[in-house]
Amino acid sequence: MRLNTIIEQIMNGLQKGSVYALVALGYTMVYGIVKLINFAHGDFIMVGAYTTIFSIPLLASIGCPLWLSIIVAILICSLLGILTEKVAYKPLRQSSRITSLITAIAISLLLQNLFAKLFTSSARMFTQVFIFDVPTIIIGTVKLHKVSILTCAISIVVMVCLQLFVKKTKMGKAMRAVSENPDAAKLMGISINRVVSFTFAIGAGLAGLAAIIFCSYSMSFDPYVGGSLGIKAFVAAVLGGIGSIPGAMLGGFLIGLSESMTQTFLSSEWVDIIVFSILIFILLFKPSGLMGKMTSEKV
Amino acid sequence: MKKFFVLVMLLVVGSALVGCQKDDTIGFGVIGPFTGSLSSYGEAVRKGVVLAVEEINRDGGVLGKQVVLYDEDDEGEGAQALAAFGRIANKIDVLIGEVTSGNSKIIAAEAEDNHTPMISPSATDAAVTEDREYIFRACFLDPDQGIAMAKFSAEDLEATKVAVIYDTSDTYSKGVAEAYRGEALRVGLEVVMFDGGFRPADTDYSSLITTLNGLDVDVVFAPVYYEQASVFITQFRNSGNEIPVLGADGFDGIMTVSGVNPAKIDNVYFSNHYLASDLDNTRLQAFITAYQAKYEETPNAFSALGYDATYIAAAAIREAGNLDPIAIKDALTVLTYVGVTGSFQFNETGNPEKGITIVKYVQGVMEKAKVLE
After folding, report:
1. Residue B70 lies in a domain
2. Min Cα separation A257/chain B (Å)
3. Which of A18, A122, A260 to mutate to probe the B interface, most B CBs <10 Å?
4. Cβ of B196 and A217 within 8 Å?
């Protein structure tokens, strides 16, 4: 196999991985602070995709530049995240984890079926590639799609910003405090509600951003895209260590690369088998994930 | 105990009587994916059937009785298809359905057990009618499509090396792909790649396309449905590859996908049941006129097949002279019929002898490429 094909396949894997990474970031952030696996997270992306596709003609008709639809999608998703948290997860904060998990699954199904009802379950193509329709860079004989580089770059930048935010800002500190010990945080005057809402807003906003990237290279979506994307991203988050931001990024890229490499060197039928085998393998030797910390129960 | 027994018997007899329809109507059933990812086919079939039933009733019905149509949506899901059949089995004399091979196979088993004559307008998998007496179809078979496209690749497109990619989760796709490969090898083509590259729920074909671009092939054969096809072809053309992309009847409907760019759907060939803009068949023209008048859109092959299947059912009942399922079934087995999608000659296999049309997409517009009798 020629070198340029291999390099292209690596770029394909990284491109795919960057979406998984962005989604995994959302999962990991929410889990880190609230200890909840928000299974509806993948479906936030679906909502982001539909928002984008409907806001484009709207923006065009009032004369706004089309790339504003990205902002609109992120905003709508953030609002959806905050709303979901307030309506479905907050009342269950004192309940067992299983209850919250089931609620999350219910929200996921609700969103999928709601959108299927509203917009039919037929797939829609997204070819409005206003920013991402850029020509490829050719270095020697290697074709590098600018899309791949852009999406990877965006993901890494987002991850770095997030990590800085959590480590350096006051709100970030508050988030870390709530994650370690909610009761002590409350005693320190931190508003738990505010922190949790903020966390969901960021997480869901990330899903909105992921939606745009997803649409630009996947080109098509239907009400059920969130399901499979969510599972892959969840696997990525667990692989990297759930609760760890760099871990989510690493996990996402790893899954993306494994998929594309398996398809290149083996065959497409092996992709899911390999990906999930990697997950099992890693967890056997490092149950907390690649970059996760072992947390022991404090007596 | 005895009282209980009598009560139960009354209920059984009562429900049997309730299940029977009135004597002065004939029940036709139609089951298909009227919503969901395959709704393009399901809705097209349904509209064709509804139009046919209207015309038949307007012209006096069948055996002097009006036809009542029971339509059931299964959203493309097997479990729902089965449930749909269960709901209408007692009310219908003939079933027009299902639309896809997968669900047709599921319902066929039930219909055969229930002795309900069933005509699928569009299921192309051979297994649907195999070893069954009551199950028929109004279209050609998957293997026929695969074979026709392989011959076309070799003779008309002068290919020597081909790549075949299919959807592993779909028996239709795999069936056609395998038939293509078999015939391709037989006519001397080199099948460089045979891969299940279409995975459900993943429309990012960049890895697949990178692999394809690295191969030296003359055509790509991808017998998948229109939603995946539209995305794959668009991404493939975006990557700069202009070689012909071939498919089967699942490509019919690519232009119905919301947001598809017609300029990208170019140099694409697929096997189909017919082409509306062709044929000096006066029946076809009358059908197109009536369809456009009723629905304000042009019919596609699936509407035409649904229409033909309905008329075939009516013709069989007229031949049989009564509504006895066995008589209807026997009449169907030897039926000759000329419809809008060509001429049909049925036999005991339940599969009609009829022709295949190969259609070409040129910038999103369909043109006739070849007609095989």
Report:
1. yes
2. 10
3. A122
4. no
Are B178 and B226 contained in the same domain?
yes
Distance between CA atoms of residues B197 and B24, nearest Å: 53
Q: Are residues B341 and B221 in the same domain?
A: no
The separation between the first and the last C-alpha atoms of chain B, rounded to the nearest angstrom, is 67
Q: Which of B272, B304, B330 is the last residue of a domain?
A: B272
Lowest mean pLDDT among B19-23, B100-104, B222-226: B19-23
Q: Which residues of chain B are within 8 Å of residue A53 when distances are taken between CB atoms? A: 259
- Domains of chain A, by residue range, sit at 26-224
Whether residue B195 and residue A122 make contact (CB cut-off 8 A), yes or no, is no
A87-111 pLDDT tens trace: 988 888 888 888 988 999 999 999 9
* Residue B192 domain-assigned (yes or no): yes
Q: Say yes or no: A146 contacts chain B, CB-CB below 8 A.
A: no
Which residue in the block uniquely carries the two structure tokens 């045979």? B194
Which residue in A has a C-alpha nearest to residue B165's C-alpha?
A268
For B231-245, what is each residue's pLDDT tens digit? Answer: 999 999 988 899 999
For residue B270, CA distances in Å to A139, B143, B194, B357 come to 37, 14, 18, 8
Of B75, B203, B207, the CB nearest to A220: B203
Task: Look at chain B and count its residues.
Answer: 373
* Structural domains in chain B (count): 2
User: Which chain A residue has the Cα nearest residue B168?
Assistant: A269
- Integer Cα distance of A18 and A31 in angstroms: 20
Final residue of a domain: which of B237, B272, B307?
B272
The enclosing domain of B51 has a CATH number of 3.40.50.2300
Of B207, B230, B258, the CB nearest to A260: B207
The residue-averaged pLDDT of A173-195 equals: 86
Question: Quick one: B130 and B213 in the same domain?
Answer: no
Q: Give mean pLDDT, residues B82-108.
A: 92
Whole-angstrom distance, CA of residue B369 vs CA of residue B364: 14
* Site of tokens 């990205």: A70
* Residue ranges making up the domain that contains B180: 143-272
pLDDT digits (tens, 9 = 90+) for B166-191: 998 888 899 999 999 999 999 999 99
User: Looking at the complex, does the CB of residue A78 fall below 8 Å from at least one CB of chain B?
Assistant: no
